[in-house]
Amino acid sequence: MGLKEEFELAAAESKSLGAKPSNETLLQLYSLYKQGSIGDNTAEPPSNPFDFVAKAKFDAWSSLKGKSTEEAMNEYINLVKKLKE
Q1: Distance between CA atoms of residues 43 and 36, nearest Å
Q2: Burial class (CB in 10 A: 0-12, 13-18, 19+), 40
Q3: How far is CA 73 from CA 7, 31, 34, 65, 79, in A?
Q4: Do residues 80 and 13 make contact, with C-beta atoms less than 8 angstroms apart?
Q5: What is the pTM of this model?
Q6: 72 near 38, Cβ under 8 Å?
Q7: CA quadruple 23, 25, 26, 27: dihedral positive or negative?
Q8: Fold type of domain 3-84
Q9: Sign of the CA dihedral 25, 26, 27, 28?
Q10: Whole-angstrom Cα distance, residue 72 to residue 52?
Q11: Spatial separation of the C-alpha atoms in residues 16 and 83, rounded to whole Å
Q12: Least C-beta-crowded within 10 Å: which of 2, 37, 55, 77?
């Protein structure tokens, strides 16, 4: 199985974890998934200053700028495996 297929499988498995991860872990999953599937965040920051969730997601993804998609995919896969234990 190639990296892309393993990444997609981990993404599917992340939706059926036994226990809901913490908000911090959910942000980590989100940002690694976005970095692994799209690459660096080039979107504009959220315009609503009261949309804290959008800001947190934007900041989490932006913090991974420069990380290769392959590295992000591997980290995502390893995090999902850890959460399944």
Answers
A1: 16
A2: middle
A3: 6, 11, 9, 14, 10
A4: yes
A5: 0.93
A6: no
A7: positive
A8: Acyl-CoA Binding Protein (1.20.80)
A9: positive
A10: 24
A11: 11
A12: 2
Please report, as a single letter, which amino acid is at residue 79: L
- Taking the chain (85 residues) in runs of 10, the rounded mean pLDDT of each run is 95 92 96 97 94 96 97 98 92
Give the per-residue pLDDT at 55. Answer: 95
What is the distance between the alpha carbons of residues 64 and 15, in angstroms, rounded to a whole number?
A: 22
